[in-house]
Amino acid sequence: MKKIKGDTVNWGVLGVGNVCEVKSAPAMNLIPNSRLVAVMRRSEEKVKDYAERHHVPKWYTSADELVNDPEVNAIYIATPPNAHLELTKLGAKAGKPVYVEKPMARSFTECREMIAVCEAAGVSLYVAYYRRALPHFVKIKELLDGGSIGEIRTVHINLKQILTPDVVVHLENNWRVDPMIAGGGYFFDLASHQLDLLDFFFGPILKAQGFASNQAKAYKAEDIVCGSFVFESGVVGTGNWCFTTCKVSEIDEITIYGSKGKISFETFGKGEFVLERDELETMLFQVDLPHHIQQPLINTVVDDLLGQGECPSTGISGARTNWVMDRLVGREGRF
Question: Which of 52, 68, 88, 324 sits at 20 to 30 Å (Cα–Cα) from 111?
Answer without folding.
Answer: 68
